[in-house]
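Entry:
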Amino acid sequence: VNSPKISENDYGEFKVTRAYLEVRKYFGKGKDNYFRTTVDVYQNTDGSYVVRLKYAYLNWKINNFLATEIGLAHRPWIDWEEHNGWLHRDVEKTFIEDSDGAHLLNSADLGIALKGKVGNLGYMFGIYNGEGYHGAENDQHFGKSVEGRINYSWGGLTTALHLAYIDNQDTADRVIVQPWIGFKNDNFLVAFQYIYNEEKNKNAPDYVNTGFSVNGDLYLKRFVGKPLTLFARYGYWNLDKDAENKTDYTQVDRWQVLLGASYDWNKYIKTSLAYKYVGYDIPAQNTESGKDYKDTIMAVMQVKW
């Protein structure tokens, strides 16, 4: 890793980026009603890997078109995108949560959500604390997050819309509007999304930040006889000019390119090699290391069962 921040420079390190352990208790016949507990790990400031709770919710199927999640549950968007549009979360997060992308929200939160599918139409709507699964609820008013997603598929084409309103106590209230479109078949996947983010400040001007990303996969098994995939993503995030800080590279416009290849050894093990470049709209002399960019080379192994 080469970074504008000297402490982030890293010229070779083995890391555990994710380690999920999931347990489910099913109720009654079938697998529609259950309680799920999932733990993950993260690395704290002293380098220790610490276990924390990611999901803990009751999944209750009310009828064929409606189910609910109650507890520390999925938010509507990120889990859906990583199963339909961005299939390389082992390499990097989705653009809306990536710290070098929009960096607006995470994947789980405490609350209650309704979800389901009617024909080709899928949906999920929920009300949450809003701080996410690794943030403290500190609202002294009824400050909650209301979020939703609808998606529709026909053939290989899928369209989706994600909306969120996050009512915060001490920071700006956040509005997110995110249309998405993607196409997938046996040979390739391509997806595009636009993100509109309005920050409603109580004692300061409102900010409007916008951005987009496009990503694609090329499945080479048909051509080379091996389960090899090439993938790429380009993203751009444009901060409101009143929100920019030209002395802090995390608070300026940025763009990213991610290129990679993955190989499925079997249904359990996948390896990937990827390169990510992030450019920041900041004078190089305003950063610790004198760099206005960050680039990263990653070799990743995913074991999943």
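Residues 155 and 232 are 23 Å apart (CA to CA).
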